[in-house]
Amino acid sequence: MSEVTLPDSLQGLEPVTVVETPARLDYRFTAGQATTRFLTGIAAKRILGERCPTCRKVYVPPRGACPIDGVPTAEQIELAHTGIVTTFCVVNLQFYGQELEVPYVCATVLLDGADIGLFGLVQEIPADEVRMGMRVEAAWVDDADLAPNLTSIRWWRPTGEPDADYETYREHV
Amino acid sequence: MRDVAVVSFAQTVHARRDDDHNEVELLMPVLQEVKAKVGLGRRLHGEEIDFTCSGSTDYLAGSAFSFVVALDGVGAWPPIAESHVEMDAAWALYEAWVKLQTGEADTALVYGYGKSSPGSLRDVLSRQLDPYYVAPLWPDSVALAALQARACLDGKITSPEEMAEVAARSRRDAAGNPHAQLQGSAAPAELLDAPELAPPLRQHDCAPITDGAAAMILAAGDRARDLVDRPAWVRGIDHRIDPHSLGARDLTESPSTRIAGERAGVGDGPVDVAELHAPFTHQEVILRRALGLDGKTAVNPSGGALAANPMMAAGLVRIGEAAQRVIDGGAGRAVAHATSGPCLQQNLVCVLEGEG
Q1: Is the separation of the CB atoms in A64 and A82 below 8 Å?
Q2: Chain A residues with a Cβ under 8 Å from any Cβ in chain B
Q3: Which of A75, B106, B197, B220 is at a distance of 20 to 30 A from B128, taking alpha carbons?
């Protein structure tokens, strides 16, 4: 391995060890048919899933295709705004940009009639009282603030109904 | 070596933008079509296809792990053997071909897709350049191709007139291709009246910006004969790469294409059709020279990338267009080429042949 000989002008200078090269790219994201239908529904305070014609499973939020059968899922299914917490996590870590106060709870909510859970916050209950099987309902923003965006559902809150049996949701955990 | 063939190929009708469909929705009909063409698609994916490989890039989609959602359109349950390359699906084809060579699979599905419309393609492509010295300058892809074109003109490799002829011929031939985005062209002399876009390149010298997808099915030996009457046998396939630094190589030639072509056996027989992945007109000239093609070969009867350039799929489309002509009986022996990186940095060459 040959030695590198620096020219006189570079003798004694500190080596460069870090280079910052800022980069920014802007994208105009295409939601696509399935997401457009779903978000349009959210803006109208409706939760729409899609059913696979082959396996009959209902997916929410829908993506236009069944991941098992690889076929389009055109059939729209209106879902209730209630469901159960299948699993949850208590977040204790305050991270940069986080607007919520810790501890807070995020959960997978299996809506009544759906075959996959969706992600959401759980509020209006102390974090240490949240449990699997707890029945919840959507807490929407005010009607005037509805938008084609999942933030139209602020969070999920307990309904007070009895918890669901583990057997009824064990496949979704 | 196992005999491996292309048995089916399908692609979108390529367009400047598809604002109604996301990448998965764009791709799904193509996946269904490529299977239906050979009587597949009635059973679970893994029961019919032994290996699946795709080509795409997160930088085009603007989201991480974007290719994972595309598997929703495949039906990857029960779990399938699957892989992905963050580049043109021609290289996914190569990986699938290798998989079939190992004997671990007898059939493979290969697909590629890209929507260039969400972002600024020129800027997106700058992210593939040397991150220390080149990318921070944000040189756009057309400007880099223009550097190469300038070198070609100065080196008498080609002329603006020849480049205009490539553009006119390509887009006129594309009139016969129902999947092409640009069809038809003014005469070369009229094209040369247009102002330069990035000198010496004019608009006609550049591929369009495209949203599109393509898919292909490979099969080995008798399985290929079961699926289609006239498989397009892959007689040779090879890919090589030139130095990354644009200043470290002669931009007027393509050694990686030449070597890949030699290794794939391009010169071993007559070439009826050559589909060359040249997003810029001067690059077709470089590639023809590198592959030693003479005037007897029909180049880019599909219109080539100048007629439709779905990023991450255009190379696979070249292989598919060449294969389809063999499958349909229009060609006995065809060559297909795919490129990746700025100024023909990395190149793949494939030789396809029909039996009898």
Answers
A1: no
A2: 19, 21, 23, 25-35, 63-72
A3: B197
